[in-house]
Design brief:
292 residues; alpha+beta; Ribosomal Protein S5, domain 2; 3 domains; four-stranded mixed beta sheet; 6 strands
């Protein structure tokens, strides 16, 4: 069954006192197009994330947002800036000697000095981060694919109904072909009679003229090709593989057949049928832009 390219999924994986939260949104796009919003600590995993998501999606604009909820990363380690501490100690000793005092300075003021106590970030382990993030991504993908499948089912039902209409309109247009030829034959007979004054024009000459126009107005070949395209379309709708591009190609072919039939058919009734046919094909074309 076909899938839509529109969907949403959210996944979460608890880690310690927090959790990783992944949100996926997809809309239609000609190719697989990623737009990621990741915490800086996950930048090293960007390509791995794309590969993981891309293994389950083939087309669409993918917006992925990953966020940390609560404490999921280790607190930074605090370290002394020992060279600066020693320099402070030397200056304090000189100050005591210069002033002639022996009072020791309290330690508390120094705790607020960001130059003396440094925050040392330890690089995260990519494998450990991935093991925490992967379950959240998988859950988001599961939800996303479920929504895309449900919308794909609705799309399939709508497209099936519309293709029935298209098939009927193609058949109606093709059925008008003999009447078009008969009408042309009658008009030609009347015109010849008017111009020559003969009530009965030469049957052989008339037959030759009618044969020429009948060949030009014959849309049997287009109708047969259209029927073949419609059958392929139905088969693709039942496929579990991504078929959006194939459906788009078939729509181009069906439009080509409809245009050719329209150019060959001077009949007003058939022309109106072709207009309705092309309008329905355009509606279908818009729908399949969202098929994966």
């Amino acid at each position: 069954m076909i899938k839509s390219m529109t969907g949403y999924g959210r996944g979460q994986n608890a880690v310690g006192e927090g959790a990783w939260v992944a949100e996926l949104k997809t809309v239609n796009s000609r190719y697989l197009d990623f737009h990621l919003r990741l915490p800086s600590g996950l930048n090293a995993l960007e390509e791995r994330i794309k590969k993981f998501v891309g293994a389950r999606l083939t087309r669409g604009r993918v917006s992925l947002s990953v966020a940390a909820s609560g404490a999921v990363e280790a607190a930074p380690r605090l370290v002394l800036n020992r060279p600066l501490v020693r320099e402070y100690r030397r200056v304090l000793a000189e100050l005591q000697q210069e002033l002639g005092v022996s009072q020791e300075a309290g330690i508390m003021p120094f705790l607020y000095n960001r130059d003396l106590i440094l925050s040392q970030e330890e690089g995260p382990d990519p494998e450990a981060l991935w093991s925490q993030l992967e379950p959240a991504l998988a859950q988001a993908l599961d939800e996303l694919e479920a929504m895309r499948a449900a919308e794909g089912q609705a799309l399939s039902e709508d497209l099936t109904a519309r293709m029935e209409v298209v098939g009927r309109l193609f058949s109606e247009a093709a059925a008008r072909s003999p009447q078009v030829v008969a009408g042309y034959q009658e008009r030609l007979r009347e015109r010849i009679a008017f111009l020559t004054g003969d009530t009965e024009p030469d049957p052989q000459r008339l037959a030759m003229e009618v044969a020429v126009i009948a060949d030009k107005a014959d849309i049997t070949e287009e109708a047969v090709r259209a029927a073949s395209h419609l059958e392929q379309f139905k088969q693709f709708l039942a496929s579990s593989e991504p078929v959006g591009r194939k459906l788009d190609f078939l729509m181009q072919e069906l439009n080509r057949e409809a245009n050719t039939m329209g150019s060959k058919t001077p009949d007003a009734a058939a022309g109106q049928t072709i207009v309705e046919l092309k309008a329905e094909l355009e509606r279908i074309r818009e729908q399949i832009q969202n098929v994966e």
